[in-house]
Amino acid sequence: MASKYKHVFAPIRIRGVDFKNRIFMAPHTPLLSTPEGLVTRELVDWLRMFARGGVTTLCLGNCSIDIEESNDQGFQLDLGKDKCIYPLSLYADMCKQYECHASLEINHAGEGVPFEMVGHAPYSSSSWISEDELARARRMGREPIPCIEMSKEKIKETVEKFGMAAGRLKRAGFDIVMVHGAHGNLISQFTSPLFNKRTDEYGGSTENRARFAIEVCDSIRRHCGENFVIEYRCSGDEIAPGGMHIDETIEMVGYLKKHIDILHVSAGLHSDPMGPHLYFRNWCQNYLMEHCYNVHFARDIKKAHPDLLINTVGSIMSIDYAEEIISKGWADFVSMCRPLTADPDMPNKYAENRPEDRRPCLRCDTCSRHLMTPKPIFCAVNPMCAMTSELRDGIVPKAPAKKKAAVIGGGPAGITAMQTLLERGHDVTLYEKTGSLGGNVIGAAAPSFKIDVADYLKWLRHTAAQCVQAGAKILLNTEATKEILDAEGYDALVIAVGAEPIIPKSIAGIDLPHVHWAPDAETGKCEVGEKIVVVGGSAVGCEAALDFKNQGKDVTVIEMLPEKMGKMNLMLNSGGGGNELMSIFKEKGIPIKYGLQLTEVRPDK
């Protein structure tokens, strides 16, 4: 049966390269290469689940054109020497097994290259000292080092390095590459007036500032030939004072488009002069932000340049959105990363008209936070992320012997355990002492702005219903007592009862009737008044405060930690939404009083 998502699954040919659909895996950096930047078997196994899941192109992000002066993080792929070709061919060959195209986002970080990684000052379009370098210097206890303005000879050398890097991809069996011209890396340090202060033919006008990018793309064409697709990544708007804005981006694309095949439209800068959190906000939207965040930039560019193929990215959380975007002519492709990490099989599910089976992404940033550690990617909702080498085909193996198993707890862990036990061939009964499945996700999904978590709760219950259809038993309003479990004679128990809230019983008055656990108040299990004090300034407390404020209530948050530590605690425990919450609190006038500890609750207060 044909998919009803006909625009998403329409094939297209570009320069003799056939793409089976319009779904790209957005550039991402799983940090599974060797320290010298070579592909590993673990990396190929990680990528396999996405290729097998149905994307047409799979892109690894932030790959350096040479490790000596262009890389800005450890364990990123490097294309600076021929020894990378054979390992890269393993990646390309794996993708071909699934009619998928392997791609890399090739990059030179420019000013963003740390002195500590290369042993010399970094290169850029112009010379300056960034906020990032000031912070690095403070951390390392050294003087800040200004970046070096590239000479014309250095520009020529770097342009050739981009071409040679892409040429190595071609020799490894690739037929597409992404050029990273976004987010304040070297190429955008040339295109953006925020960074480029040159007075020669590479600076000044928009056309001049586009020259370096054009020369890079032309170098790639020379090295890779005509039957090779060049995708160019830009920030549709840098969203920074003095940076590129959408009108100038549209002008720049006019000079660039004859030299590329696909324009990938992102947004923002990692060297944002107003703070790095704004870059992460634009690059990796948090759960408080709208879906399809950057699509309007892609739409505006497509309207101005209808003859150019456009790829859009940024919180495109499902293929339902992708179908709308492409059918309305706003873009020709969509790129996803976190939604595919949550469910690599999403393209295949939609191709088979099974959208309800999509495992939703929470936008909790469990995956993207690995970049700060660094450590391999994990996902809060997809346990298979940690099993890609052990279960290369994505199939949970059947157990050698069928057993009778009980799962205690009907939250996400319990439902996932039930599903896995069924797949392994066991008889499963799940016990949930309340009348609803979902566990603590029910409270987490209660605020109206927690749309991703609400979507996940719906999926959990759908998955539980599928398990019942497959033979599992679910007993609601049933506490799994020792007597019940002994009587049933289970071979195995899976304890998945979830986390208990921290309610300090030592505080006088904590059991008074006007004191409530935040999720109980948010889900309507109790009534709250019009004037509310929320105790605890981390994620749960701040989200509850915002929810009550949106209902028109007078809310104050108190947090026992001092301000600096309290804000840091919120950042670490809010799934990437800490700065967003602080901005919303300021906008809505929700006070947070730091350094205050609740010691007593009185009947009248």
Report a brief summary of the structure.
The protein is built from 22 helices and 19 strands. It has 605 residues and is α/β, with parallel strands linked by helices.
Features:
single chain, 605 residues, alpha/beta, TIM Barrel, Rossmann fold, FAD/NAD(P)-binding domain, 3 domains, eight-stranded parallel beta barrel, 19 strands, globular
Number of domains: 3
Class of secondary structure makeup = alpha/beta
Can you identify the CATH superfamily of the largest domain?
A: Aldolase class I
Give the termini separation: 64 Å
How would you describe the oligomerization state of the chains in this entry? single chain
Number of strands: 19
Question: Mean pLDDT score, rounded?
Answer: 94
State the strand order across the main sheet. 3-4-5-8-9-10-11-12
The stretches of 5 or more residues where confidence is low (pLDDT under 50) are none
Taking the sheet with the most strands, its summary is: 8 strands, parallel, barrel
Helix content: 25-40%
What name does the CATH topology of the largest domain carry?
TIM Barrel
Number of H/I helices: 22
Radius of gyration: 26 Å
Q: Give the overall silhouette.
A: globular
CATH architecture of the largest domain: Alpha-Beta Barrel
As a percent range, the share of strand residues is 5-15%
CATH top level class name of the largest domain: Alpha Beta
